[in-house]
Amino acid sequence: MDSLKNKVAIVTGASSGIGYATARLFASEGAKVVIAGRRTAELDALVDEIAAAGGEAFAVPGDVRDEAHAKELVDTAVGRYGGLDISFNNAGSVGEMGSISDVSLTGWRDTLDTNLTSAFLGAKYQAPAMAERGGGSLIFTSTFVGYSAGMAGLGAYAAAKSGLIGLVQVLAAELGTRAVRVNAVIPGGTDTPSNFVNAPGATQETRAFVEGLHALKRIAKPEEIARSVLHLASDSASFVTGSAFLVDGGVSISRG
Q1: Is 125 noted as a catalytic residue in this protein?
Q2: Strand arrangement, sheet containing 244-247
Q3: Catalytic residue among 20, 81, 147, 157, which?
Q4: For the chain, how many structural domains are there in total?
Q5: Which of 4, 158, 160, 221 is deepest in the core (most CB within 10 A)?
């Protein structure tokens, strides 16, 4: 298929999980993809995998908290591929966990910088490049934590990801006249290396509990979230902007 033929996309957090699956899917749909993450070896392996499948990708390792990195990603997309049509600002981290009275100020700030300030920096450089191209699709990864459910010990993460929804709405209002759509995807539990159900020492009981929180009684594969991101990136979602797009397996509505 080629729903993204002749499109250029940026995907952050592409070294594993949802970002990795989305970069592969974008490339398989015809997009030229600039991929970002902090792990160079994993990014290079993904570039090789995409090339072996007949796609095209280029890796730009870096930290999404760094403004120079945000600019470099856009400069690479424009300089190497001629422009920018899609960005999936997916990189993020749960950060320091604990009750609000126990979380350090450094941990708080780092979590907000990783999940929210990085989104601001991405949009700051991506949106003008898309507008110059005649329009595009800005997509961010939020979470149900702090949106449809509160979870103890995740105050900084919830605050950052909830703030991201507000940023998406403002960006959608600001950029609509320039044909740039802005949306957030809200995944439920997803089977990624960073999910605590896959952490060392995690038990089958832990996994079963997390699965049971969802109406579908399972957690998602990264590829399932990627397909929803593809929808938002493509012309199939041409009238969708400012949305918090639930892809959560019913965790937001499940009560048993």
Answers
A1: no
A2: 56-59, 32-35, 8-11, 86-89, 136-141, 180-187, 244-247
A3: 157
A4: 1
A5: 160
